[in-house]
Structures are given as C-alpha cells and as structure tokens.
C-alpha cells in the first residue's frame, strides 16, 4: 500500500534498560532494609533476568505497520493500521482441540522456572497458591498479547491452551523445587528473599516439610501441634493453647497458698 511502512521493535533496546533498572532498584531496596546479601543479590538477578527473558519471548519483536488507514475497527476482517485483523484467528477459547504439541511443551518449559523461583521470592509454597500465581501471570501475558496484536500488530494469539500449559509448568516447577529443597533445604535459605516461604519463619526449611503443602504435616499425614506438645499428665488450657502441668516438679514450683480463714484458724 502506498505510504505504508513497518517499524520493527526488538527486545534489546527495550528490555535491557528495564533489566538494569529493576535490578538496581530491587538491590537498593534490600540494602535500605539492611537485608542485602550476596545470595539474595544473585536471586534478584536471576528472577529479573528470567522475567525479562519471558517478556522477550512472548512480546518481541514487534512488527508495527503504519499506513494511510491508521484506525482500529474490531470485527472479523476490518482494516487495522493498514492490515486485516480477524479476531477468530487471534482468539482460541476451546481447550485442547487445536493443540499444537511443540508449542504446548515449550510453554510448560518456559514456566518451570517460575514455579521453582516463587518460594524464594514470595510466601507461597502450596500447589493451589502457586497455580493461582501461574494463572495470573499467564493471563496477563495472553491479555497483553491480544491487546498488542490488535493495537500494535504484534502477530500474537490469545490461546487457552497456553494458559493450561503455563499453569502446568508453574506447578511442575514447584514440585521440582520441593524435591530439591527436601534434600538441600537449609542450603537454600541464604538465597531466599525476606518474607519468602524459604526464609520463614516456619518449619518449611527443614527439608521434609517441603514434601507437603502444609509444613506442619508429618510424613504420615497427621498434623503436628503448633504451640508445644501436651504430654501425659497435662491438660490443655482454653487460653491460647497453653497447658497446665500437673507433674510433681511443676507442683513444687507453684507457691503454697491458703485461704484467709485458714490463716487465722477456725473460730
């Protein structure tokens, strides 16, 4: 079309400054709170680099066409920035019917690190919580791709199969992390950001606690007491789960008290 041209926007000029800026701000925030260590700095760098890599794969390069008909009309084949946009080709809401196996596997692989890194960054460790985070991230990506395709000509599609693959990859990444943490759990603590599931507080860092959603669960599925063990000869108190001991040693520790009438004798 006469007067039309295409502008290509590549990932490097956009995402490299973003990577540097996020890392610097994040490290400054940790330093301000006096919680910056070499291990946490490495985690910040890895997490930010991974996020930037996902953005590069899912949003770039942009091929933005400009022409004489620079207007947006939604429909089944309306001219949009000098090109035809068929919404049926941009949106797939039927799961698994038009599944492309290689793309499905690649989406799973792409989000494996997300599930593995989340316990080091956020206080999430259960499968449902991590799955929700994966769903939120995937929905944001798919929505951004759809808007970018309509408005900027990014040539991306919104596919429900990508949502399924991304959530699956996130959960599998968490399970892989759990297996590693069950073996080398304490070694991961120096790399955990403050407030994360690995940093605690809580019994999740002891290794075996990572094999279940609730770290208070034992290997046999029972729940361990959270506020001290109530042994034999003790009764539980209604105040905060405290216990009232009745052992001989505890009885000797309690002062002997008498009523006022007994102090003066009976009359």
Automatic annotation (TrEMBL):
Pfam families according to UniProt: VanZ
Biased composition (Low complexity): 242-253
Transmembrane feature ranges: 6-29, 41-64, 104-122, 167-189
Biased composition annotated in UniProt, kind: Polar residues: 254-267
Signal peptide: none
Keywords recorded for this protein, A-Z: Membrane, Transmembrane, Transmembrane helix
Keyword Transmembrane applies: yes
Superkingdom classification of source: Bacteria
The VanZ-like domain, residue ranges: 49-180
Region described as Disordered: 235-267
PANTHER family: INTEGRAL MEMBRANE PROTEIN, MEMBRANE PROTEIN-RELATED
Protein name: Glycopeptide antibiotics resistance protein
